[in-house]
Design brief:
The complex is a heterodimer of chains A (about 500) and B (about 250).
Chain A lengths: L1 H12 L9 H4 L11 H10 L4 H15 L39 H10 L3 H7 L5 H27 L2 E4 H7 L1 H7 L10 H9 L4 E5 L25 E6 L4 E7 L10 E2 L2 E6 L4 E8 L13 E10 L5 E8 L4 E4 L2 E4 L5 E10 L4 E10 L5 E10 L4 E10 L7 E10 L5 E10 L5 E10 L2 H9 L4 H12 L1 H4 L4 H14 L6
Parallel strand pairs in A: 2-3, 3-6, 4-7, 5-8, 6-8, 7-9, 8-10, 8-11, 9-12, 10-13, 11-13, 12-14, 13-15, 14-16, 15-17, 16-18
Antiparallel strand pairs in A: 1-2
Chain B lengths: L1 E10 L2 E11 L4 E5 L6 H9 L4 E10 L2 E2 L5 H7 L1 E4 L6 E5 H15 L7 H14 L4 H5 L1 E2 L5 H15 L3 E5 L7 H13 L6 E5 L3 H6 L4 E6 L2 E6 L2 H9 L10
Parallel strand pairs in B: 3-10, 3-11, 6-9, 9-10
Antiparallel strand pairs in B: 1-2, 1-4, 4-5, 7-8, 11-12
Helix pairs in contact in B: 2-3, 6-7
The chains are: A alpha/beta (about 500), B alpha/beta (about 250).
The complex binds adenosine-5'-triphosphate and magnesium ion.
Adenosine-5'-triphosphate binds next to β2 and α1 of chain B.
């Protein structure tokens, strides 16, 4: 808190007027009343200064949502969510949180310490009341130059990278054309809810033939975090374009909003490639599993053009419940989809995650590498669907699902579905389940490693194939994160 | 260096070691021989502190201290090394990575600086060349797909790098062809030093032709039942263990 005070003082010293407009005013506390109605949807849309068409789109989604029921097919268990007891609009971080770090779960603070998170960032991550606004000021103050250089470089390349709210106002034609074109408004209960009330998220547009000059990621580390509980992201790569987008953060984030339901849509046209990496580390709850985030995400990529490619890489270590199936629609001929996943569960966490590869075009290829690690009393399910449409001649899939169990109170399950309507499709599936054996551990201990180092080493060996898919600087962080998530799982 | 007094140990309530007495002075190499199931590997695990082996009585004095309650990784850092009869595989972890993690963990525990990568590489290179361990093997995941002989060479490589005070070699000769036996023995002999003690568990005289021990002990039914000079091994080779069978429980 000393660090924050320092920052506040520094900000005070510079001309306050500079901050009167823009950032600070946007962050003024505002909270819609609990519950969902057409009025709330209108309120959200108005708050964001949205055009009429966007409001109509949201209202349509809302009306359809009213007719839907929550899915129950996944292997996760949680008390029934009372959708009337939630706030659907909150200015970032205005909801009640702990007053200071003293009120935060000490385990969580210990993790920040281990990850080397700067003090002032710990407050926002832990959801300390008011920390968001203080640090947002601070972020403006600190990183004006970084952001400017970054934006300049993108602009030169013709890449649009902004918030979805800004895109709705500035690039309505592109948004109208693509929003909901991959995940239709009525796709599933959570996606429909998201369509009605989405808070914010990212928008990326890479024009024809452009290779985005940088990873779109970390520069907005702090600002982007305030995207709220119903995140919405849309990424479009025009013909021959390439972009690599990285979402998330290795630090565990607390949030008073227990329910998170994001939608991410990717569109790749002819010869385009999108690489989307996620590191998800929402607060999993305390030792008894209380207070964790429910994360119900719909992520889908559309390989709309011939020879296009979409690749999902995810490292999932957080949340009390994860319900997430990043998928690829392989529509273009010769298009390719990839899914690389590491899902770690410990404590009382429940993970039900996997992918869908829908082969529609000719000679389409997909590859699924899933590594599930279950420890503590957690449950970890891989659920996957690979299907070949009638016209998808020459479709090929390779799936490899490995599970690693640590201890004997956790569970790992593999639920692969395969549907082929084309005789020439070739689908291969491999699956293994293993345990960290006592003798393997002893071998490491005998060489001088502590049991935590030993587990980390064995687990990192297990996930190596997926870690290699992550951008270099992130791979190291992800490895560290996985080790920390599994601390205390043996011995 | 090592003094074992009246050591009793059991697994799941079943007593395997029934009063082992054994002294290995600093700088000496001792061999342990004995029939299958007599408790040789069990003794090596108990010395290294493996979980699940209950020491019900007795002491293990290592370097002047009773280490019966000491954690296995602390024993390792203090200088106890065990070359496993069946080395374990760790998929996805390069042998080189494992060696570095082990060496640095031990150095850290002893309050020494971690080795820099070039320093480490130099040491590995020197040690691996002597043992015919190729660079290619060092890049492969630890022991995965290694032949029996390669695994054993890899154990001795680890011993050479970790420079323990007490090395326990559990049937390091089994599974080795004649050339590998010579290479491994030379590797072991090169590590003989006035500061290092070794306990070599074997079934065969041929290893002891290469690694000539100061003493030979015979283990049977969880006890050391006889101790002699190198000639004892020759006698056992000629007569077998018949004299020692049926030891009282
Ligand atoms: N985990 C265990 N549970 C029960 N009994 C065990 C266990 N491990 C070893 N034993 C028993 O302890 C006895 C000693 O085994 P140990 O492996 O120490 O023998 P050894 O002298 O090394 O034999 P070998 O020459 O075949 O390697 C054997 O009877 C064996 O069956
Ligand atoms: Mg044995």
């Amino acid at each position: 808190m000393v660090a924050v005070q320092e920052t506040v003082d520094q900000v005070r010293q510079i001309d306050v007027d500079q901050y009167k407009y823009g950032f600070v005013t946007d962050i003024e506390t505002e909270l819609a009343p609990k519950g969902l109605s057409e009025d709330i949807v209108r309120f959200i849309s108005a708050k964001k200064n949205e055009p009429e068409w966007m409001l109509e789109w949201r209202l349509d989604a809302y009306r359809r949502w009213l007719t839907m029921t929550e899915p129950t097919w996944s292997r996760v268990h949680y008390p029934k969510i009372d959708f009337e007891d939630l706030h659907y609009y909150a200015a970032p971080k205005s909801t009640a949180g702990p007053k200071s770090l003293d009120e935060v779960d000490p385990e969580l603070l210990a993790t920040y310490e281990k990850l080397g998170i700067p003090l002032r960032e710990r407050e926002i991550l832990a959801g300390v009341e008011g920390a968001g606004s203080r640090v947002a000021v601070d972020a403006v103050f600190d990183s004006v130059s970084v952001v400017t250089t970054f934006k300049d470089e993108l602009k030169k390349a013709g890449v649009i990278f902004c918030s979805i709210s800004e895109a709705i106002r500035e690039y309505p034609e592109i948004v109208k054309k693509y929003l909901g074109s991959v995940v239709p408004v009525t796709d599933n209960f959570y996606a429909t809810l998201n369509s009605a009330v989405f808070s914010d998220g990212s928008f990326v547009y890479v024009p024809e033939g452009v290779r985005c000059p940088m990873e779109l990621s970390t520069y907005f580390r702090i600002n982007e975090r305030n995207t709220g509980q119903f995140e919405r992201t849309l990424i479009i790569a025009e013909k021959g374009a390439y972009v690599s987008y990285l979402e998330g953060c290795t630090a565990p984030m607390r949030d008073e909003n227990q329910l998170h339901a994001a939608v991410v849509e990717l569109i790749a046209l002819d010869d385009a490639e999108i690489k989307y990496s996620t590191v998800q580390n929402w607060y999993p709850g305390d030792k008894e599993g209380k207070g964790g985030i429910y994360n119900f995400v719909t992520k889908r990529g559309d390989c709309r053009g011939d020879r296009s490619k979409i690749s999902w890489t995810q490292v999932e270590t957080g949340s009390a419940i994860t319900w997430k199936y990043p998928s690829c629609i392989l529509r273009g001929d010769d298009s390719q989809g990839e899914f690389y996943s590491i899902a770690v569960s410990n404590g009382y966490q429940q993970v039900d995650s996997g992918t869908k590869m829908l082969h529609l075009g000719k000679n389409t290829k997909s590859r699924i590498i899933s590594k599930g690690i279950a420890a503590g009393r957690s449950d970890n399910t891989y659920r996957g669907l690979v299907s070949a449409h009638r016209k998808a001649s020459g479709a090929r899939n390779f799936t490899n699902c490995d599970s690693l169990l640590i201890g004997d109170q956790c569970g790992a399950h593999t639920v692969p579905y395969i549907e082929s309507k084309n005789a020439s499709a070739v689908f291969e599936h491999e699956a293994t389940t293993s345990k960290i054996a006592d003798d393997q551990l002893f071998y490491c201990l005998q060489r001088g490693l502590s049991s935590e180092e030993a587990v980390a080493l064995i687990v990192n060996g297990f996930v190596k194939d997926v870690i290699q898919q992550l951008p270099m600087e992130f791979a190291v962080e992800a490895q560290k994160l996985i080790s920390i998530s599994l601390e205390g799982s043996v011995g | 260096m090592l003094e074992i007094k009246n050591l009793h140990a059991s697994i799941d309530g079943k007593e395997i070691l029934r009063g082992v007495d054994l002294v290995v002075p600093t700088g000496e190499v001792h061999a342990i021989m004995g029939p299958n199931g007599s408790g040789k590997s069990t003794l090596s695990y108990v010395l290294a502190g493996r979980d699940g082996y209950d020491v019900t009585d007795g002491e293990i004095i290592f370097d002047g201290e009773n280490i019966v309650e000491t954690a296995p990784e602390e024993r390792a850092s203090a200088g106890v090394f065990l070359a496993f009869q069946y080395p374990l595989e760790i998929p996805g972890v390069a042998t080189m990575t494992f060696l570095k993690a082990a060496l640095n963990a031990q150095r850290k525990a002893r309050g020494e600086d971690e080795l820099t990568t070039p320093d480490f590489m130099r040491r590995v290179k020197a040690a691996s060349e002597k043992l015919n361990v190729t660079q290619e093997m060092l890049r492969r995941p630890l022991n995965v797909g290694f032949s029996g002989g390669e695994k054993k060479r890899n154990e001795i490589l680890q011993m050479a790098l970790l420079e323990p005070k007490l090395a326990i070699l559990d049937e390091t000769d089994s599974g080795l062809d004649i050339d590998a036996l010579r290479v491994v023995s030379e590797g072991v002999n090169a590590l003989r030093s006035p500061d290092r003690s070794m306990l070599v568990i074997t079934h065969y005289q041929r290893l002891l032709d290469h690694i000539v021990p100061d003493k030979v002990h015979v283990m049977s039914a969880g006890r050391i039942v006889r101790t002699g000079g190198p000639e004892l091994a020759l006698e056992l080779e000629a007569k077998g263990y018949a004299d020692y069978a049926g030891e009282p429980a």
